[in-house]
Amino acid sequence: MNEHRKNERRKMIAFTPVYDSNKATLLGYLGDLSMQGAMLIGETPLEINTQITLVIDFPETAEFPARQVRISSRVAWRKQQENTPYFNTGVEFQKVNEMYKPFLQAILERYQFRREAGGINRP
Hints:
Blueprint: E1 10-11, E2 17-20, E3 25-33, E4 37-42, E5 51-58, E6 67-80, E7 87-95, H1 101-110, E8 114-116, E9 119-121
Antiparallel strand pairs: 1-3, 2-3, 2-5, 3-4, 4-7, 5-6, 6-7, 8-9
C-alpha cells in the first residue's frame, strides 16, 4: 500500500458508527477521517477492493446537529489488530456528495486529536 497521502487523516474523538447501507449492518466505528477516505475499526472483515456504500452516523454536538452521511467507497486495505477480534480497515471515498463536503470539512477542523509535545490535547 502506498503510504503517501495528499491530505493528512485526522483521528476522531467520538465513537462514530459506520454502517453498510446495503445490508444495514454495523461495520464498526471511525478511527480516522480525511476528505479522501477513512479508517474503520470493527469486527467485520471487509474484502479488499470491495465497493461499498457507507452510512456514517455523526452524533449531535454543541456545534453540529446529528447527521447521517452516505458515501460510495472502496475497501483499500485491512489489518487485524494483534490479539483482538478487531480489524482496522482503510476505505477510499469514491464520490463525496457536494452537500456533505462543507460538513465533513467542519468536522475535520473541529473534532480531531491535536498532538503536542506533552501528549494529546483535545479541543
